[in-house]
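Risk register update: the risk that structure generation would not scale has been downgraded. Supporting records follow, first protein first.
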Amino acid sequence: MLGRSAAQATRWGTYPVHFARQPVGIPMAQEFDAYHKWLGIPPEEQPPNHYRLLGLADFESDLDVIDAAANQRMSYVRECATGPYVDLSQSILNHISGARLELLQPEKKAKYDTGLKEAAESHNLAAQAAAALGGVTDFQGAHRQALQTAAPPPEGVTWHLPVYVVAACVLLGIGIFVASSVGSKLLAKSTTFTDSITAETIELEEQTARQKREADTEIDKKREELGSKVSSKPLVDDPNAGSLPQPTLDDSDVNAGSSLATGSGDIALPAEEKEPEIEKFPIPTTEQVRKAKERLKKRHGHIKRSDQPIHVTVLLNEVTQIWEGDPNTQWESLDQAMKLAVAHLDYARSIKALEQLEKRYFYEEGDIENLRADEIIRPISRKIKPKDDLYKYFCDESLQFLDRLIEKDRLELAMEVYESFKDLRSRTESKRLERDLRERQPAMQIAKQYAKPLTVWNKMLNDDNEKNDAVANKALGLFYLCVKEDNKRGFEFLKNSSDKALVRAAELASKEPTTTEDFIELGMAWRKAAKRLKGKGIQQHKSTLGGFGRARLIEGYTRAIDDEKKTVEKVMKDEGLLIVNSIGMRLMYVPAGEYIMGTPITEPRRQQFALRDEISGKRIPLPEDEHPVRLTHGFYMGMYEVTQREFEGVMGHNPSEKNEARAPVTNVNIKDAKKFLMALSQVDNGRPYRLPTEAEWEYACRAGTTSAFAFGAKLKQDQATFGLGEQEAPTPVGSYQPNAFGLFDMHGNVAEWTNDYYLESYYTKFLPGVATNPTGPKVTGLRIVRGGGFDNTSGFCRSGARFVISGNKMRPWLGFRVLMPASN
């Protein structure tokens, strides 16, 4: 809602039921405010307007954004539907669904927006609440249901029963009177309507009866066929069935594929037989096609353009009904059907014709994909418009086809299809299509880079030259391993490559390491292979293979116990991957690199944190827009959050509420954190320590991943400390698995200070293009905090989640970790 305080809300008599006066004699209910707990909407902002409910800025105009936001909200509320909150969850889902419908219809949205603005200007609280709810009526029901769930049954109200009975009788009488008067009018109108559909109803009933008779006949035939399977053994009496004899079946006669229950005594229909394979034929020659065209022309004559859409169906049906046994005319029928369907932008039936061609004729590998791209997708993309019936279907299906081409490494063809969609986007200015293409842009950049080399490498494998074969195996192995992330295929190529170090690493990687020594050997093999790689444009592969080695060493460190950890640590220190400073803090090396900072609009629970606008009172979600970032220098980051033992050892005191030496230090503001870093630098021989920038923090947290969390799309309770509640405390650092950079507790436990101030849209507005080593805006004000705390839901713990707080604040869920620049 726009600008309403809690004090004002309590004075408003029609405000939600949790502000209503409790009747005398009825115990006060313990209400669970799901709008606040689940959606982050505090009581003073309830009832929320539709935009606030969906987590959007007021008056959002992009319908795709509204639809995506509603889907995200509904998905999250469904996850909360457990225990006593199932019905409450459904009520809130109804509220969200109603808001979504109202905002996705332009006329209703315009009317709703107008009412919202007028109510805000009037400063009338009741009008603001009514305008916020719009056409939704489920808000009051959701809160009332919460009270009913939590409150004990009222006592001393049995005197109401007679009043309720009398009221029910009066209402029943009124209902009967109204129904009788209205019913006579409706009966007269319904007679005409009934007469108009009588003929259709009779026809439908006759058709249904005819189909039932045919089905019964088919079943009888199958039962007769099955009868021959029944044994000639004498019938025996079932002691449980009186004197009625039951037939027994000879189990040896029952087909393995039938649906008969062996020994059950029941006769069942056999299992449905597989559809027989269609005989394939060679593609007709030019002369055969000419004769087939003459046959079709003689049968159909000239087809008017207005009749062509219907003629597509005729041609498809005639393939089996008329031209069975004539493969040449069948091929021409399907070819004509496909071309006519394309001419009329009928993507569905053009694909149906193409599928029949693939099923009936011998095509070379990849030819069908070429036909789909060149003869169907590209011509349709040049003409189709968003208003056309099959536009959405065409885009969705063709983009999935594009994804399959990329997956199968048909990169040159994929680039052609992608360019067709870029032309379609520029011609139609479709925001949804622009979003879909943007999501595939990274894959297409890889396709552009590797399309021609892949063709060359595959050709080298087939030229019977042993030297070329080894070079091609190395190139293809690196491509599948480092680019496609297909380890199994990459290992197989690398085993036959020309590089002995790669052969050794691939052979070791094909076996599952079990001991600490195995992990060390494998990790060092990959790092040695990375160092030996030479050549133009190979730096990306060197970084990836080095990352493989680092990941194996980190995994060995995580699994190691006692003295084994020291063995792994020595190897990692020798490799420059780990630093142990003078007070025993461990810092992991994070290599330089590029990544996409922020989150896609499809990521669930994005933009959960919001700021209150001081002027309008609106809640403005913190932006998480995607933008490229390049970090040109590696750095060392604390393997763990700064612990209470470490802070007290340097500063001489422990500000945390609950004393636990291995738990992260809390109740420190940003000045306290910086004082610790300065003192640590003096203790540790002048090494430069600082807080990470926001860009460095997210890069380190993601560790090469693009999902919501470093561990995947969802965060589990055995992966981080989160969702515990305000009365709990953080757990000892390192209680869960680290990410791929060897950093623990980047999600949850305690939120972490970064060095950045907050400025709205800083990256997208003030750093266009690729932001190189961004240090944040040079302003004073709120500070960026990352990672989420032990009392937050998983949505606040995402890699891209952002929230802000004054740098002077000290909280029991807020800590920090250190960063030291590398000397590279």
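Supporting record for the second protein:
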Amino acid sequence: MLAELPIRFDQPQWLLVLLLLIPVFLISRRSIGGLSRTKAYVTFAIRCLLIALLAIALAEPILVKRGEGLTVTVLLDRSQSIPLPIKNRALEFLKEAAELKERPEDRLAVITVAKDANITALPDPMSAVTVGSDVADPTATNLAAGIQLALAIKPNDTANRIVLASDGNETVDSVLDAAEIARANKVPIDVLLLEYEYDNEVIFDQIIAPPRARQGQTADIKLVLHSQKQTTGTIRLKLNDYHLDLNGPAEGDGLPVQLDRGLTALPLTISLDESGPHQFEGVFIPDDPAADATDRNNTAVAVTFVGGQGRVLVVDDGVTQSQFLIRALRDAGITTDLYRPGAIPEQLVFLSGYDAVVLVNMPTYAFTREQDRMLRAYVHDLGGGLVMIGGDKSFGAGGWIDTEVAKALPVELNPPQTRQMPAGALALIMHSCEMPQGNFWGQKVAESAIKALSRLDYAGIVEFNWGGGGGGIQNCAWAFPMQRLGDKTAALNATKTMVVGDMPAFGPSMQLAMNGLMGVPAAQRHAIIISDGDPSPPSASLLQKYIDNKITITTVMVGGHGTPIDANRMKAVANKTGGQFYEVKNPKNLPQIFIKEAQFVSRSLIQDGETYQPAVTTRLPGPTQGFTAVPAIDGYVLTAPREGLAQTPIVIPTSEGNDPLFAHWNYGLGRSIAYTSDVSSLWGARWAGWERFRAFWEQSIRWVMRPGSPTNMSVSTRVDGETAIVEIEALQADASFLNFLRTNALVLSPSAEARPLPLQQTGPGRYRGQFETDEAGAYLVNIAFASGSGATREQGNIQAAVAVPFAREFRAVKHNAALMRQLAENTGGRMLSGSDPQMVDLFNREGLEVARTPKPVWDFLAILAASLLLLDVAGRRIALDARRVAAMAGRAAGRRGDVTTDALAAWKRTRAQVAHRRPQRKGKGAAAADIRMARFEAGQEDASLAIDVGEEVPTDRRGGPAKIDRTEPQAPPAGEEDDGDYTARLLAAKRRARGRDEGEGEGGADG
């Protein structure tokens, strides 16, 4: 019965404080402290109520409100494991069932579930079953996240029920674990099973290949496939993007196969002639497309790392600038491959096959954002080496400022803050609203351009709005006024808030941009216009002003209303001012274009035009050990020394300080080198002819290269469900087990996200770690290890890979009815039938606990008790005259008619109090007083006149009472204080009356 009470106490022991009422009652009976009986009773009641309120507040009372409504939260599984027609039918079925809601107080909420859970409708009586925009990633199923989100948004003032529509094939977390939380909260989960089964599905389960091998070995691999029934098809296999001939002398390179029902394993032997990572990619092609329900699970991938001599990747846009370096490295026995930046795959597996990467005068716009992140991860997380060699398109002059690669370099790409040098100025004129996601890409390109500039450069962003009306210059405004960039915080913040409007004409915006460019002391001035080309072109006079002021304009045309004529006009603007014209079809290319154009104003970072003699400042161990002097150079890119552990052994002395020429440091697990001049005839002709050129660069490259993998360690990987397992076996030189190995292992996901991989020793020389594979692609594992100390210290680095060819979603060939049934049974839910919406009562209240909403009220009681405490103190300390209070209230209310009555009552009381102290008077004064009293009682005299007891009333010539002059009030006798208290005034009146009585007595005696 206690559960049904509307109030409960969290700390009921404090109710014992109510026993204090007994001593309070006893004390109050013995002493009332000079108070009247009524006031004593009132004070006692207030004090008892105060104690009761305090006791109840300390007991923490909670009011429990009974709820009447029901909230149903519908979870819709939108993952790709469910065929689309079945998902759509389930959506329509639940929509019709929800429309049968009868009670208006009932609420509905909707959550879509795939890789993540998203709310599409919050609990509300007006909500409907919908999937919204349905933007969830469908490559995974996280039913547990959906239940957790449903519990998070459930109202506490209604009963709650969850309805889950799914096939039961989860790939992330455990829905049964989440269901335990729902059961603890007494929330049942009803299940609508989405049933399907493929009877003609082929899954390329995996390619089993050794994780590591030696150069020249042959590798035994296995192709594992799973088929629902007997079928035929062809398997094709690629090794590093080259198709292997699996069919021998027969026609074609594919291997014809006949698959039986169940698993089929096909062994192959592959020769591994080159070092580096070898990626196998196999695909199954059925002879009859109807024999395979989906082709998304017909591909498998595996990676084998082949050990060999160190390899170096040189990235150059040609061969002229890197030819001397490549020749020197190859003469030194270092395997060197030359790639153009566009030929580098956006895969870390490719980079991990090299021990060092050399960028020769490469600008950042030659690489994608993904490649930029990959290069940093390659050094920091995979332990690779990075060398950046200068030139007129490298370092800050190549737009590398504020990139991911810049973080890995041992120099600061911004020039020194104390350096006095000419700066550049860039104006961005933004008009990109009519292409898809125009504002988004407008912000992205502005951000990319600003990041490519140095802190000393100037920049401004011009936007267009309709606020001024008329389309003139008053409509153009600076989203970021032309100013020096500094730390770029303000400029980057401005790019996030700017509004890209649809300008009708280029002229006003270009005029505003030119005013800003000419208002700063810049050596180079450049403007970039992004538009769809439909604004009217600028006037010839305005273009001539740009030309006269040597301001170049680059125009970028994107999709919109622009015509070929508009494109020609934009191209003409760029050509006349010495800029470039770009016509962009894919907006993803826009940031790289703006980075390229932004470097136009960064030319001041290039220091050339004279001969510079470098100085070797240190002979500490490192890549330059043993070199005491180096040749002169004809130019370099200005950078600043990086604080911290970076070393700068070779500098270029100038009048303003030492500029870095050669710097190095350790970054994460890898190393990097920065050489700010070039290795071609542009600035480094003397270096190319230097007799120690090969020795210098061989020593530098070998220092930066990742250490070779040890031969006494083997690593194996496998995938168990969604969990990848990595195992290492380590031996010492004498073949004994290598124990207590210190490791630092990382896993790089396909999206280049680094995760730590803890390794635990599980046996003699054996170590094990595991991680979750929550996305498709290749996971790279890099293990740096060390053992021993001093002369016996061993350290090294070893790599492995785990390949997940497709999402686990596509492994499902049938619904999981057993899991869904267990989910309903564990929580007390129902198995719903999807045949007839009329038969499904989503808002069924059977078995649900009535919602009770607890509300703490102790704080209200505490405030009430504090108020009573003030009343208790006031009642005992403050004495009030009820009549005076009533009179004051009457005057405040403006009741003039009560004044006569109050004055007359006060006169009667005063007269009665002093009457017994003096004899009955029969003189004129007494008679006059009696007459006046009669007139007062009859209402014929003004009661506001001052009347003093015992004073003769003056008469006029007719014998009637004369009017009293009240203009000058008489001061009280000396020594008396009128403090405004009623008692004090009464005593003073008594004294005055007594004095008059004594005076009359003396006068009578004399008479």
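The radius of gyration is 47 Å. On this basis the risk owner (M.S.) recommends closing the item.
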